[in-house]
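Thread: Modeling a multi-component assembly for a lab meeting

Hi all, long-time lurker, first post. My supervisor asked me to bring a structural picture of a complex we are working on to next week's group meeting, and I have zero experience with this. I have the sequence lines for every component (490 residues in total). Could someone generate the structure of the whole assembly? Inputs are pasted exactly as I received them:
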Amino acid sequence: MDSVPVNGVLRSRLIETTIMALEYDGGVVIGADSRTTTGAYIANRVTDKLTPIHDRIFCCRSGSAADTQAIADVVTYQLGFHSIELDEPPLVETAANLFRASCYRYREELTAGILVAGWDRRKGGQVYCVPIGGMLVRQPVSVGGSGSSYIYGFMDSNYKPNMTKDQCLELTAAAVSLAMERDGSSGGVVRLASISKDGVERRVILGNQLPKYSTH
Amino acid sequence: MALSNVLHAPAAGFNFDHAARNAELEGLFDAQIPKPVKTGTTIAGVVFKDGVVLGADTRATSSEVVADKMCAKIHYIAPNIYCCGAGTAADTEKTTELLSSNLTIFSLNSGRNPRVVMAVNILQEMLYRYHGQIGASLILGGVDCAGNHLYTVGPYGSVNTMPYLAMGSGDLAALGILEDGYKPDLELDKAKELVRAAIHAGVMNDLASGNNIDICVLTREGVHHIRPYQVSQYKDKRKTKYKYGAGTTAVLTEKVVPVKLEVVEETVQRMDTA
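Re: Modeling a multi-component assembly
Sure thing. I ran the full set together rather than chain by chain. Output:
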């Protein structure tokens, strides 16, 4: 985010990152790296970019740390209020639309690329992509962040519909590791979560446990 | 009353006009646009077994001159919450004062001690609203009913929580010590020594950090603000006293002119104290 430097040191913190979400029959799997940078300095090497919005709805954040935290807080409030009014768990599509509403209205001021993923009773596991600019589109698989460029080919060739939850977790871990290997702005640990009717399971894969890929 | 307010009252909220104007002018001048003073700092915090230890250096610089050798960078927020501030000195001072006032009012209204997350949320909301124009990088530490907490809030309003943190111009030096020496559930002495060593690394390796080291220990039992914890070994002794004794300046003449005041009007207002 290019901003007016108020004093020589101030720079916004960015989550230039690798984030990913995919649907399987019965839920979704989401994954992210854990690096937040301020210029060339890693401000947080264990960031949690998988943010809960509701019981069965998460978002993956990329872009400006401050902007995405603020938007996620706003949407959490709006969705929580909506859910209480309806007296039933909210739909993933509703959450995605709330994100899109904020991201599109304030598109000039914000730098936020968000993946909304979750499970609801009506449509099961869903992934919605809300990139910079405020588009909204549902996709079975979506990657985001600066590291995503390196894994489009991997995703296109390795994702198959109707995979099991464990296959999805393995695929996500592999993809994020590959992106972290190539993208300087991604790194740290791999955070994974799977969301289904039964709840949320979170997992961390530490640096030394990452799948190893080496060309030489 | 400032004359500029006579014609119209200033609008509420923050005014970004000058920031926009400065951005436009940046390319046009040959001379350097004056920058606001950057105050170098090393601040750090560590969560240990029984609470949180915060540390800071005590140097405030104005370009190349040390403006204050015993500056207090660990600010009181609440009886159980303290905050280290790096960045523009005025911004950190006023932001923490504002936060402290708000939390005091909350405490009085609710009868509870404030929680650290509440302080963090208030700071985050405020700093995000001003979009980085308030140059405050803060490390908040505190102990409340939910445990021991350490957070950092950046100038743009991003929040991170970690068991150990360092901010300021000396943060890289301090973080090296913290990354090497931190273990979960440290004892109090080890934690104090770790923070002291981290700030010391900043003092030694960053020109804008220096002088003494302050430490603040927060636990369930209370707060121990040790100021200074370590005194700078480079303190110089003054060679002589620079105070002028009485009689240095000779008095040549003395003239006393009494100012006559008359009582023009006298009113008595009864105060009802019943």
